[in-house]
Design a protein that fits this description.
By secondary structure, the protein is α/β, with parallel strands linked by helices. The chain has 19 helices and 12 strands.
Length: about 450
């Protein structure tokens, strides 16, 4: 059996770091098992689905390192869903219901007031052809519900019916179908909710494993029942914990919270995002993993915790910085050039330890090859004038800084911060940064002289 998984986003907005978690889980699972990854757009909602969102999702996934083996669009497969719906109708498993949303809500409110669970009472199944015709004459259009197999022949006499499965993340799971309402599969306007198209696609595309968020656990029992009603074997399921912010707030695609695009534009490394999205909420340490191949090796669904996967967005900066500090020159040469930097290995090795992002190197390039406004305190002006006189002759090398500061120390009596900080401030405009011993040769004699008073 070839492992086949899918990630099925709705192209109704930009994906965020929370969405990237199931995408990465599925991708890593496929790669670890020599399988295939399908990117399948749930774009049957034609009003809200946009081509530009689909394009941005593809771009974001590829930036993360996810290369789909296949791309499918549900909007192109409606005929398959129609055929499956007809099969269920012919079997008496899909029935029309004419209640309006307000009527259904009032009915649920009454049930709750009586202390009963707000489960749909299958009133639609009791309606005669004449009653349905009367509703049609009023202009009502039906929505269609699937009859759950939670009875022994009489759908109005339900019994406990546990559907169980071995979950890749959560172990043995069970859902009692008698506790659930018959799910709506087709809206009154004739469009499909996600459930039936997803199941039909999983069957037709040979999906063997469905790995998704824990918010779908309750749906799984229903979906297994529909798989069986369509004479198909359900895939293996895995439900992982959801990525949330530290205060437990969920992430929203529509709000654009921590969107992958915004993280990319902020200069973050894809592996910093992938490392956090995958390792948070597992038994493994959240640490920067430099390459996807290594993340594949670390990935194990059995390590996913049952508790929430909370993270602090500030962790991304820390992970990113640790990755950047270890990036070799060849990995960043072209990116530095795109920032207007004429890169050398010496420059990168000097500044990378102080860069949270690769693009942060541009500020240090300005110090090296541009004009900056140095900081000069009044009490340091005489000291800096003396520094100009004592600047070592000849080429500026890594030995120039200790020779210069030792001469200044002997001449002025200054030491420590009082000695080093005025020089750093006037030459770089910063209070902190790379080792001045290494920066000085990059800045060069002429820039040093131009910046000293």
């Amino acid at each position: 059996m070839t492992v086949t998984v899918r990630f099925a986003p709705s192209p109704t907005g930009h994906i965020h770091i929370g969405n990237s978690r199931p995408a990465l889980f599925n991708w890593l699972f496929a790669r670890k098992n020599g399988g295939a990854f399908i990117l399948r757009f749930d774009d049957t909602d034609l009003e809200r689905s946009k081509a530009e969102y689909a394009e941005s999702i593809e771009t974001d996934l590829r930036w993360l390192g996810i290369q789909p083996d296949r791309i499918e669009r549900q909007s192109e497969r409606v005929a398959s869903y129609d055929a499956a719906a007809q099969k269920l109708k012919d079997a008496g498993l899909l029935y029309p219901c004419y209640e309006t949303p307000d009527e259904l809500e009032r009915r649920r409110s009454r049930q709750r007031a009586l202390g009963r669970p707000p489960v749909y009472d299958r009133a639609g199944l009791k309606q005669s052809d004449e009653e349905r015709a009367a509703f049609e004459a009023e202009g009502r259009k039906p929505h269609w519900r699937f009859v759950l197999p939670n009875h022994d022949g009489d759908p109005f006499q339900t019994r406990r019916t546990d559907v169980s499965w071995t979950d890749l993340c959560r172990g043995e799971q069970a859902v009692d179908l008698a506790s659930l309402s018959d799910p709506v599969l087709i809206r009154a306007d004739g469009t499909y909710l996600y459930t039936l198209p997803s199941i039909v696609d999983d069957i037709d595309m040979g999906v063997t494993h469905v790995i998704r968020g824990e918010d779908h656990v309750a749906n799984t029992g229903v979906q297994i029942a529909i798989f069986e009603a369509l004479d198909a074997k359900a895939p293996v399921f895995g439900h992982h914990n959801l990525l949330t912010t530290r205060d437990g707030e969920g992430l929203s695609k529509r709000k654009g919270a921590l969107s992958i695009g915004s993280l990319r534009e902020a200069g973050l490394e894809p592996m910093a995002v992938a490392s956090l999205a995958v390792l948070t909420g597992t038994s493994q340490a959240v640490e920067p993993v430099p390459a996807m191949e290594q993340l594949v090796e670390k990935f194990d669904l059995s390590n996913v915790s049952r508790s929430s996967a909370k993270f602090d967005p500030e962790e991304l900066k820390s992970l990113n910085a640790r990755l950047v500090h270890d990036l070799p020159f060849e990995a960043v040469r072209d990116r530095l050039a795109s920032l207007g930097i004429d890169p050398t290995e010496t420059f990168w090795n000097t500044v990378r330890g102080n860069c949270e992002t690769v693009c942060a190197a541009a500020a240090y390039w300005q110090i090296v090859d541009g004009s900056i406004e140095g900081k000069i305190e009044d009490e340091d002006r005489e000291f800096l004038s003396k520094a100009r006189d004592l600047l070592p002759e000849g080429d500026i090398t890594v030995e120039s800084w200790p020779a210069w500061t030792n001469a200044l120390k002997a001449e002025t009596g200054r030491k420590g911060r009082a000695l080093f900080m005025p020089l750093r401030r006037v030459l770089t405009g910063l209070d902190h940064g790379p080792d001045m011993k290494d920066m000085l040769p990059l800045i060069g004699r002429q820039n040093i002289l131009d910046r000293l008073p």
